[in-house]
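Justification of computing resources. Each target in the renewal requires a structure prediction run like the one illustrated here; the chain below, 115 residues long, is used simply to show the kind of job we budget for.
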Amino acid sequence: MPGTEQEVQLAERAAQPERAAQPEQGAQPERAAQPVAQEAEQDEQPVEKVLITAGDRTFLIDAACPHRKGRLVFGHVNANTLRITCPLHRSTYDLTDGHQISGPAACALNVEEVR
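Resulting structure tokens:
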């Protein structure tokens, strides 16, 4: 005897094959796989950037920390070492190339120097 709700639905469909073969009017047909490109385009959002000035150098970086999406617009910038520290979990990134200096493990920060 079926136990879960999904198993019950599958059992009902098997008992009524003519109904299962015809989708309801206006309903989308069931598919085993969905197109990835179409879903990615719908979910894709523009990446916000932050302009950082450290001494006489200016950098364009992602607005969200790679670790947990902390708002780097509120981060601490050290102009002497060219580093930014995320206010959320204290992850520190080098502004010259984006590699992580300290903090919880994360990927590099996207950094572009503006001239």
